[in-house]
């Protein structure tokens, strides 16, 4: 008896494909390598234009050896400003601890600080109020483990340099950071005459580490020996992405083109790619190591990190004892900031703000 064969229906492959699509999109994030943002040519040109304006203005502004800027008015008289701290907030969400930072800034006069916020424009963010109102600068998309975070930090530095010649220190912090001392305590610490380097410039507080178990993998994240000849392995450094830079070093960062050409390259090994933790320590180590403390002012707890993220403090952990512990360091000075705190910590932090955090 002959075997009957029937022509296959074209609907079967179509239905199979349609049924497979949901499964593919569900499994794709765990199968495909994560796609990282890259620096586009238009974004790079925008930044270069901003950097050049900041560099030109800084070169035309005279400063004395203690980095206290002075400018000449149209009448020819010279006016001297008190040095300011520029706070650079780098965020991709709401500033959860804005009320705590408001108290921090309310302790002093507005002419001692400036605020600049880089907020990822692709994410809806509640407009900041109070001293934070209208402080968001022209921003671009950012992504962890990509050169976009470095671009954002450089954009903040350039904007602050261009905006006010009396900005003498530039402190980069995130939406998860909190202050550990009063503003006056921080200001006195930064501008104490004993905090000068050998060349009478203010020191920069940035972590610079030459040893790490993953240093070789991080160095070759873009491909083996791709960083040469600009950066040899012996010159490569790692450190915290949050820092407090002097004006001199902020200028060095936005003036750099040579090292940036390497660090903006896309990574092949994404698991070892953290440009925001590599670029600044490497650049300043090569440019002026003696002018850097090699320590950061921001305390981070890495004892139980998850997927490259440090320990996140939650509401039950907040106490006066925690604040005292976070201030302690192995150096001669105290930590000034700490991360990483979850939004539910705000209320307990506010409760101890005056009696503990801002008491000193």
Automatic annotation (TrEMBL):
Annotated compartments: Membrane
Residue ranges crossing the lipid bilayer per the database entry: 12-32
Signal peptide positions (record): none
Membrane topology of the entry: Single-pass type II membrane protein
InterPro entries, per database record: BC10-like (IPR044174), Glyco_trans_14 (IPR003406)
Alphabetical UniProt keywords: Glycoprotein, Glycosyltransferase, Membrane, Transferase, Transmembrane, Transmembrane helix
Protein known as: Core-2/I-branching beta-1,6-N-acetylglucosaminyltransferase family protein
GO molecular function, a single term: glycosyltransferase activity
Taxonomic placement: Eukaryota, Viridiplantae, Streptophyta, Embryophyta, Tracheophyta
Gene Ontology CC: membrane
Taxonomy, superkingdom: Eukaryota
Pfam short name (any one): Branch
Chief location of this protein within or outside the cell: membrane
Organism expressing this protein natively: Cinchona calisaya
């Amino acid at each position: 008896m002959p075997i009957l064969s029937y022509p296959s229906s074209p609907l079967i492959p179509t239905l199979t494909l349609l049924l497979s699509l949901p499964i593919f999109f569900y499994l794709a994030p765990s199968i495909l390598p994560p796609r990282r943002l890259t620096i586009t040519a238009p974004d790079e040109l925008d930044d270069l234009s901003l950097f050049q304006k900041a560099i030109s203005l800084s070169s035309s502004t005279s400063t004395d050896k203690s980095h206290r800027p002075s400018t000449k008015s149209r009448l020819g008289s010279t006016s001297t400003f008190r040095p300011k701290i520029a706070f650079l907030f780098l965020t991709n969400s709401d500033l959860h601890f804005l009320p705590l930072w408001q108290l921090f800034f309310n302790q002093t006069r507005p002419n001692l600080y400036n605020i600049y916020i880089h907020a990822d424009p692709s994410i809806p963010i509640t407009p900041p109020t109070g001293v934070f109102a209208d402080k968001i600068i022209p921003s671009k998309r950012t992504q962890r483990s990509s050169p976009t975070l470095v671009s954002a930090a450089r954009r903040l530095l350039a904007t602050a340099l261009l905006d006010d010649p009396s900005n003498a220190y530039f402190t980069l912090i995130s939406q998860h950071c909190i202050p550990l001392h009063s503003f006056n305590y921080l200001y006195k610490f930064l501008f104490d005459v004993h905090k000068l380097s050998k060349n009478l410039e203010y020191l920069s507080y940035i972590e610079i580490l030459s040893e790490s178990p993953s240093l070789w993998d991080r160095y070759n994240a873009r491909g083996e020996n791709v960083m040469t000849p600009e950066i040899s392995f012996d010159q490569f450094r790692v450190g915290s992405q949050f820092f407090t830079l002097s004006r001199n070093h902020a200028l060095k960062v936005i003036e750099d083109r040579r090292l940036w050409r390497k660090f903006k390259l896309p990574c092949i090994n994404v698991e070892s790619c953290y440009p925001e933790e590599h670029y600044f320590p490497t650049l300043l180590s090569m440019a002026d190591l003696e002018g850097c403390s090699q320590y950061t002012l921001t305390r981070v707890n890495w004892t139980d990190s998850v997927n490259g993220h440090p320990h996140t403090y939650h509401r039950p952990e907040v106490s006066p004892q925690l604040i005292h512990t976070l201030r302690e360091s192995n150096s001669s000075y105290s930590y000034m900031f700490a991360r990483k705190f979850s939004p539910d910590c705000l209320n307990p932090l506010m409760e101890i703000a005056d009696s503990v955090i801002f008491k000193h």
